[in-house]
Design goal:
Elements lengths: L4 H61 L10 H8 L2 E5 L2 H6 L17 H5 L4 E5 L8 E10 L4 E11 L1 H51 L14 H50 L6 H32 L8 E4 H18 L3 E6 L4 E4 L1 H18 L5 E9 L2 E8 L27 H11 L3 E7 L3 E9 L5
Parallel strand pairs: 6-8
Antiparallel strand pairs: 1-4, 2-3, 3-4, 5-7, 8-9, 9-11, 10-11
Length: 471
């Protein structure tokens, strides 16, 4: 279960969401904390400015009337209750004398914390400190109190607020953020389960198909995958693979049946004539010569069959070496034509040969002759007695073309690619190696074999070779 793709996809998806949520929460917390601290300092700064103006105004009024009792007192704790912050006054004898009961005097504080020189220059100072008797850090703003037109420095009003009080404002936001994160994790878990199920279901089905194929059951049906994508591509390739394996298995069966039949026929003939010669049944010199000719012909047939199988194995394994020599294509086609004239005469086939060019190419002459011979052999096999076969040689656009056309039954479009596969035959007879070897040899020379055919009309095979061929 823990090693299944479905579990790991959901787990990785959920882990990614958790990590992303934690990182987002941490960043959000820092941003909220920074924003809250910035706003708190701005509030304290405004309060310090207001209180400084208030005390400066009252000090001016006291100086004019010289009667302190007529100015209403504003004790510090009253202002603290109104603002929610702590108020202090950095010592200055003159102002303390004016308002001795209103402003609590801030005890001695380090000059590193509040540089008095900067205050005396009229600068507002922002700092953090721990007041005496407290264990908490306060954020504070000290604003200079300046009287008279000459801006005489009388001291500084300090407004302070506990720093941990800001956490009370951030805490509810963090709680809501946590609830949002939990909700997001729940939704992500459901989405991850759905996605993992939708992804792994076709993968499991394809895995079951692969197990069936591995067990040798090639007729298994590959399921259709909706939506395409990588899994759809995998299903298509698996379907194509099973089809090709099935065809390969069928070709293998055809091969063994065909080869066994092709081997058994000449071997039976050879054995019969050998037995006749051994037992003395063919004492007549003419009969003996006839038996020897049959044995030689059937032995040659066996040799050609074995040679075709070896040639195909070498060509498919890219272990086939081609010679390079100048080949007179007109002479080569004449040789191929002469090979089949007797069969054409015997079967009353109208066998024609036309030469429209006399090209000379650099290639393996024996193998090019083998290609043309295989094409002619295929044409004579499928052309009925009294039919027509044409062998044509021409050259154009730097290439040489040899075409073989017949008026046989033609080839269906669905079979036009299959006929070039080894051990495949339209009627189940023969080895099915001739056209396969012809195509492999043509491609080894850098050429190709084109096919034009229609059922009931006939077929036209054309060998196209470049003038300069071979490796």
């Amino acid at each position: 279960m823990l090693r299944s793709l479905r579990f790991r996809l959901a787990a990785f998806f959920l882990a990614g969401v958790v990590v992303s949520g934690v990182v987002a929460a941490a960043i959000s917390f820092r941003l909220i904390e920074s924003y809250t601290l910035k706003r708190a300092r701005a509030d304290i700064r405004r309060e310090a400015a207001g209180l400084t103006e208030l005390y400066a105004f009252r000090a001016t009024q006291v100086g004019r009337k010289n009667q302190r009792n007529e100015i209403p007192q504003i004790p510090a704790h009253t202002l603290e209750d109104a603002t929610g912050d702590r108020l202090y006054y950095l010592p200055a004898a003159a102002l303390i004398a004016l308002f001795p009961d209103e402003v609590p005097v801030l005890p001695r504080i380090s000059r590193r914390t509040v540089p008095l020189k900067r205050l005396q220059q009229g600068e507002t100072i922002q700092f953090e400190f721990v007041p005496p008797g407290e264990h908490r850090t306060f954020i504070a703003v000290a604003r200079p109190l300046e009287l008279t037109k000459q801006k005489l420095f009388f001291g500084a009003i300090v407004v302070a607020r506990p720093k941990d009080q800001l956490g009370n404002q951030v805490g509810p936001l963090v709680g809501r953020l946590g609830l949002a994160l939990l909700g997001g994790l729940f939704v992500a878990m459901l989405l991850g389960l759905y996605l993992s199920r939708s992804i792994t279901r076709p993968v499991r089905r394809l895995s079951n198909v692969a197990d069936e194929v591995a067990a040798g059951r090639l007729d298994v049906e590959v399921p259709e995958v909706r939506g395409g994508g990588e899994i759809g591509h995998l299903a298509d390739r698996l379907r194509e693979m099973t089809l090709r394996l099935s065809e390969s298995e069928q070709r293998e069966r055809n091969f063994f049946m065909s080869v066994s039949h092709e081997l058994r026929t000449p071997l039976t003939a050879i054995r019969g004539h050998v037995d006749a010669l051994r037992e003395g049944l063919a004492e007549d010199p003419e009969l003996r010569a006839e038996s020897l000719e049959v044995i030689a012909a059937e032995a040659g047939r066996l040799e050609r069959l074995v040679g075709e199988v070896l040639d195909l194995a070498k060509l498919e394994g890219h272990r086939f070496a081609l010679s390079r020599e100048e080949v007179d294509m007109e002479r080569l086609c004449d040789r191929a034509y002469a090979t089949f004239t007797e069969e054409a005469r015997r079967r009353a086939i109208d066998f024609r040969h036309e030469t429209r060019a006399k090209p000379v190419i650099v290639a393996d002459g024996d193998r090019v002759l083998q290609i043309i011979t295989n094409l002619l052999s295929n044409a004579f096999r499928w052309t009925p007695d009294g039919g027509r076969i044409e062998l044509d040689l021409h050259a154009e656009n730097g290439a040489v073309a040899v075409s073989v056309a017949d008026n046989g039954p033609g080839i269906a479009p669905s079979d036009q690619e299959r006929i070039f596969r080894a051990f495949w035959s339209r009627d189940g007879s023969g080895t099915g190696l001739g056209l396969a070897i012809a195509r492999e040899l043509a491609e080894a020379h850098g050429g190709r074999i084109d096919l034009e055919s229609a059922p009931g009309v006939g077929s036209r095979f054309e060998l196209v070779l470049p003038v300069e061929t071979g490796p």
